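User: What would this chain look like folded?
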Amino acid sequence: MLAGGASEREAHDILNATVCRGMQEHEQVSLGLLHGILVNPARAQRFYSDLTFTTRDGLGLVVGQLEMLVVEKYRRMKDLTRKQVVWVTNELVKGRTLGIERVCNALLRQIEGGNIAPENIWLAESMLRLLKEHRSWLDGVPFLLCTAVYSYLRLIQDHSTPALTNLRNAEVEFTISVLREKFMECVGIGRDLVRLLQSVARIPEFMALWKDIIQNPQNLSPHFSGILELLNMRTSRRFIVNRVTPDMETKLNFIMSKVKFGQQKKYQDWFQSDYLQTPESQSLIVDLIRFVCCVIHPSNEVLSSNVVQRWAIVGWLLTKCQSNVSACSAKLALFYDWLFYSSDVEGIMNIEPAILVMLHSVNTHPAITATLLDFLVRVVSSYGQGLDEHVAQGIALWTCWSIVLVSIVISLHHFVMSYSQYWVVSMTGRAKKATKTTSSLLKTILQ
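Assistant: Here's the prediction, encoded as structure tokens.
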């Protein structure tokens, strides 16, 4: 260190004189002090004091470097360094440092869904504590506020064991508080907010919130017109990507841009060994399907190439569901944008994987096509909240016609006939009745 052994005042003078020489010296001193904070907890407070005293850019360089480290290196960090990253982030939030919300967002993204390992629980607890402690600051950063609500609504589902009761209660308290006090800001999350609220609806606090959303929307905000306002708003990919870590994103993008179709099994096994090995990881499948549908939108060049396509990844993920509950949640995630689709405000890319996985599975995996189309039919009458007609319109009048018009599927006739044939052979009498309804619905669309 430049100021090794000097008093605090002398150290400040030496460091200040150094940073005044030029931008290169300023960068070297700032990054050196940041390094000291991350590896030396005993002297971290002193290093942070020196950093705030010598900065010439409002700590912009430090914030940018810290964000990069969290995004690219967090997975490889040792526990001590991770703790120091959260510590310095808390200090920077306390000082209202410009841009520190980006680091908070990156840290929230590193909390893995479907993972209750101690280090992951520690990060969830630490970030929740930071956000609650600095709630007044958080209220002034709407995007981070909504991202935090979106993240913790999703994480509540994972923290259902007795050992995690305290964390779960704290998450419920935080999300309910924000939703009650800043509801119109949270409306900006869009329809996936409803999906997440449905998954925690049996928790008493959320039951009361649901009652207001459905029966008394004005209790939440005089500007809130009701649940359809949420459902008709597509969720930004910025929220959906937050539930997939950068490492997951990198691996999925690699498979869908570099791996030839038919050669993906070892890469899928590689991904599964990292993220889908435990019973708790079943909930992650929903996050991954939403990510593939809503965030990964390949170019026409990629779509026409021989690399692994999105529908193949979705089909693989569906086969990893080990219970009826996880399978139902995964199907809802896949079809969610179908239910309230409008071609006026939404592109075709969000709904394309579902129709293609059904189409490509007709001959090779007929059970997948059958169960998906069965779900699509049944959800019309089972979604609830008096939205049957709206859901049916979203699926039939908009989605199927849009698919035909943009030539994703040139004709659905062969698709419907093949589906019906396989279904009648393999399913029960009750399913045969559903098949007739399904075929009638799609044939009507084709007329």
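Residues 260 and 284 are 25 Å apart (CA to CA). If you want, I can go into more detail on any region.
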